[in-house]
Amino acid sequence: MSMSGLINEETRPRLEAWLAEQLGATSVAVDDVSRLSGGAISENLALTLAVQGGRLDGRHAVVLRAAPPMEVSASLNKAQEFAVLRAAFAAGVAAPEPIVACEDKGLLGRAFYVMRRAEGVAAGFRVVKTDEPQRELARELGRQLGKLHYVRPSTPGLEFLPRPERGPALDAARLYREWAGEVAERDPVLAYGLRWLEVNAPPPGELVLCHRDYRTGNYLVKDGGLTAILDWEFAGWSDPMEDLGWFCARSWRFGRSDREAGGIADRADLYAGYEETAGRRVDPVRVAYWEASAYLRWAAIAIQQGCRHTSGTEPSLELALTGRMLPEIEHDLLLHLDSLEA
Amino acid sequence: MSIDQPDARGLVEIALKTFREVLLPAVPAEQRFPALMIANALSIAERELKGAAGPAEALRRLLGEEGDADTLSRRLCAAIDEGRFDGSAELRPVLWEITRARLVVSNPKYLQK
Fold this sequence. Notes:
The complex is a heterodimer of chains A (342) and B (113). Chain A is of the alpha+beta class. Chain A has helices at residues 11-23, 78-90, 105-108, 124-127, 135-148, 168-180, 188-200, 241-248, 267-278, 284-310, 317-323, 326-341, and strands spanning 27-35, 43-52, 58-66, 98-102, 112-116, 208-210, 219-222, 225-229, 236-238. In chain A, 42% of the residues lie in helices and 15% in strands. The longest helix of chain A has 27 residues, at 284-310. Chain B has two domains: 8-50; 56-111, no CATH class. Chain B has six helices and no strands. Chain B has helices at residues 8-23, 32-50, 56-63, 69-81, 91-106, 108-111. The interface between A and B is medium-sized, with 25 and 32 residues.
């Protein structure tokens, strides 16, 4: 019997009984449990549900996504993430189909939800490894984003998502300053970047549901085609150009700096796909602002991840090395700011 | 400097060399990622222990003040926060110098990209 920490002899029967009840099934068996790699924050298990009766009768490859042992304040909790996933899926976005969520920590020790498992490769360095640019993939990723951005703050079920107070740009800058903490008082590049964001913030415009981690490495590709968009835990109301700026940041090109849309193709391909479905034009000036914001956000996250190690709460070589990536992120920020003035 | 030799830098250097030449080729695929992270961490430590030239001189020139790199960096941050360098053409080259000096330690290959 294959086991993971979360699903063991004690929790498995409980989980199976709960799933059967939720799915209106006669019985559910949980098989083939294995841990999925990736997910610095959440824990993902691949499993098969053998469902007898009810609306999901049959065998289903699913992912059980559980909350981390310690919740990270910046991300949504699992029930909220599930609600976002439902809204995105309902909007026709290629998000994994949400199946069922459980807020009761008594069941597995942590909150979790279950979604359909998509096939494909996520690892950025593998996705970008093609001789020719993947223009259709970039276009499709643009189309998907355009569909997602139709989800607006009036959508039922998403009332818990906070609305920006001073506008998405200034709120974001303030948040990154908070995350960076005292590092912003001794790292001039960081201080300069944060100041730049504050001085150059565009006025607030329309608010849409942004994925906020839409990038190569967070979608699945099979035979060159998109199969699913993953990692919805940072979603929130923001400027639609934020997702495009994040997608195009150098940080997510995995060595293919020349292919500015996520290391897979040109920006033009991504933008064209976006304009096909979004019902709005891409605003390159705003995208450029949000790309600068992306470097500051990633820098602030890297600082936080490094702190999780340095503070002793979570000793980890991976977190430690992420903390030391700060100069690379700041290098990319300076390069970007230089390009805006060229 | 330590009385006992080799010092920390010498030890890290030979530990890294041995790890790369002897252990890394024998590491099974599923442990390759942590093994590469270990090699990366040791090589950063090795370069840091070499002691690279800091950006203190550039900071002194920009601010027209004396002090060590850390003190001057903090003063520069405060000045930036106050808007004293908004629109300044002199700041950007110094920021590049600081960043290059840090990359020489953390990831020198990144500079060549």
